[in-house]
Amino acid sequence: MNYLVTEGFKEAAIKFQQEAGLQEPALCSSLDERIMIREAVQSGRIPEAIAMVNALHPELLDNDRYLYFHLQQLQLLELIRAGRAEEALSFASATLAEAGASDRAALAELERSLALLAFPDPHASPFADLLLPAHSQKIASELNAAILKMENQEYTNPKLCSLLRMILWSQSELDKHNVKYPKMTDLANATIEQPK
Amino acid sequence: MQQLTIFMDIESSRSYIDELYSSEAAKTQEALVTLKNSVIGSNRQKSSVIQQGIVPRLLQLMSDEEIDPNIRLEATITIGSLAKGTAENVNSLVEQGAALALVELLRTVPIGTKLIEAALCALRSIFLHPPAPITTLPADMMLLSRLTQIAREGTPTARACVVRILSIWCGGPLEQEALCAAGACGAAAALLSSRSTPPPARALPALDLLAAMCFENASVSHTAMNTKHGEKTIPELLTFLVSRDKPLPVALGAARCLTFIHRAGALPSDDNRVVFGALPCLARLCTKDMPEDIRATAAETLAYLAEVDTSLQRLAAISNHLMSSLAEIVNCPSAAAKQGAFKCFASLGANDEDIRKRIIETHGLMVHVVNGMNNPEPTVRLAAVRCLHSLSRSVQQLRTTFQDHAVWRPLMQLLNDSPGNELLTVGSSTLCNLLLEFSPAKEPMLDQGAVEMLCNLTKRPEAALRLNGIWALMNMAFQAEQKVKQRILCCLGTEQMFRLLGDSDTRVIMKTLGLLRNLLSTRQHIDAIMGEYSSQVMQAVIVVLEGSYPAEVKEQALCILGNIGDGEKAKDLIMANEDVLRKLVDYLAHPESKLQEAALFVAGNLVWRGEAGAAARQARLADLGVLRALKLLYARHDAKHLHDKVTTALAQFNEFT
């Protein structure tokens, strides 16, 4: 349930709540907005996403300039993907340069993004990963977590993810020490094998 | 709806800025939203729009009670965003009256609305930029009551904001009393209580406010002790928060509150909440795996907690390997960390010799102390000297470690380098202690201008500094070589000495006489000094004997006289002064025992048979009634303890007088 709410699967969450007979009012107030914001980011409609975030939590992007930079970076990547090189350069110098000047990590990422312009086919360049949907999904999750943190939610990552990571880590530690234990060999089906 | 373009450059921004002044509400609102979206996240944009002069218009829209509340809200949010810019941005806002306007808003806008929340967020952002415009918040009871009401009844964000603002605003006793009267203790308690741990964003401002209110204020601290939220009192809430499982800044904040409440006098030092609550928490927060900023504040708070109480010092010294933790903190790069650690060492070593020994044995500490005295940050230098001061109270250390590390050199350098009053006071006290021991270091110290510096100290308006100056000179003169004594006398001058003998602080007078006494020891020195300064010295002694000084002061004067009486040629100076001799007779009969004894010491030296010219002296003294006085003294019931000395004195006289 926590996973569905945190990641924004509203219909699934409602269905799940009904089917499992859960009482908890886990559908917190910002679920709708977070869903729309995530969609906007992943579709490349960045100014729209920023406007929605500002309407929901006006202090968020001022407090987290690095996040703001990542959103601006996505905008830049949209321009590069669309082949609008000159606009991309003007945009970079007008808006992104500010963050790059104050934060070294941001500067490095900015340089990588602009380097795409040096290649006739950006998708074939060493930095092509920036243009993949996985990148904008990552930023969308970052933004989602920031919103949840602002609302004082304790878990900004779904508990399920942390649980999975914990299982993998503890199993590897036990293996290192050659301990016999009932091991979960198939994570997707949660199959547990008894020790031989 | 205006097209959301990719970015705004300066030219296109002008168009929507003009719309801010439109008479149509819809256009104004649209323009505000566009403006807001352009400034959030970009300091450059913030500076640009401020330069274009829109702040007055924003304030106007924000404060106008007639217009659409949505417009007021967007204008306030925009001001809030501008307040998250650079220091210049914030200064600009304050200069144009933003803080005042926001405070006015707080008086009238209903609690629980988004508008008041936005106003508080904006005001908090302004206050977080030092220097906070505290004058914009007057200490009037109506306003403060409103603010504490918001702190109890507002939205979570509003409550956290208002408490944060008040914690910064609370700068002294005036604000502390006003806040207490307005119920701020109760509001803070409300934010601290919760079935589980309150989230740090809510708890930290409340803890900071409580600390600011209780600092050095006994009445507020007592009120805090008795304030409840639900079933729990504030001390109970704080004790809950200092435990191991709480987030570090929260535990630190709670321990700090308990510390301030104790130091203000509302919690005794043996109370469980101090001994088992605050103290172990702070010691734990000093350990190596804690973040540096936490350790720095924890060390400084612990220093304050244990500053004056020996039992707490002893307890802290055995807590959780504190010594080694502090040694690590001294090694940290930041000034705050070094300062905290030195101060903590200073507190721990203030009174207990065993603790001092352990501190010195802490690996490499003296090197750190010397380095600390050379640190570019003045706060670190001061803290290092405080540490040195505590350690200098150990005679053993003076004789061993301090010699090895020549600590006097950087100390002299600091004292000669136009130090502030605090450094001067602590530094000169330390110098005083360093000079107590006979050490080869005394001479090089002279070359560094120690005498001149100390003589100058005796001229300061602050009694503590005058005392340190003259005390250090007194210690310096003890068993010193003649040239050192000459240097002191020459530099201080008899005029200054007379002034000091008339000082408003009795301790200064005592130490001045002590200096004289130390100067006038060893025969050759006595004769040499009296050869040059006899009239001034005699005059000084008479001034004290004649004046209305307390008995212990007069005793010192008589002892000086006694020392003079030991000098070969100097004896004659006393004999030649009939005034003094008559006083001697009086004092032999004085009701105060210590004065009798001192006078006896003088008489004893003067009549000593083994010295040349004794017979003549004895005759003269007998003439003036000294012999008779001695016999009377012998017969007194309350002077039995002086019998032996009186007998010896009487025995000096020849049979037939």
UniProtKB/TrEMBL annotation, chain A:
InterPro entries in alphabetical order: CRA_dom, CTLH/CRA, CTLH_C, LisH, Ubq-SigPath_Reg
CTLH domain location, by residue?
A: 30-87
Where are the bilayer-spanning segments?
Answer: none
Q: Which domain of life is it from?
A: Eukaryota
The molecule here is called CTLH domain-containing protein
Q: What organism does the record attribute this protein to? A: Iphiclides podalirius
TrEMBL record, chain B:
A Pfam family hit: HEAT
Name this polypeptide is given: Armadillo repeat-containing protein 8
| Keywords recorded for this protein, A-Z | Cytoplasm, Nucleus, Repeat
List where in the cell it is found: Cytoplasm; Nucleus
The segments carrying the HEAT repeats are: 54-92
The record's InterPro entries line, in alphabetical order, gives: ARM-like, ARM-type_fold, Armadillo, ARMC8/Vid28, HEAT, HEAT_type_2
- SUPFAM superfamilies membership: ARM repeat
- Describe where the ARM repeats fall, as residue ranges on this chain: 53-83
Entry-linked Gene3D superfamilies:
Leucine-rich Repeat Variant
Which organism does this record belong to? Answer: Iphiclides podalirius
Q: Where does this protein chiefly localize?
A: cytoplasm
Q: Does the keyword Cell membrane apply?
A: no
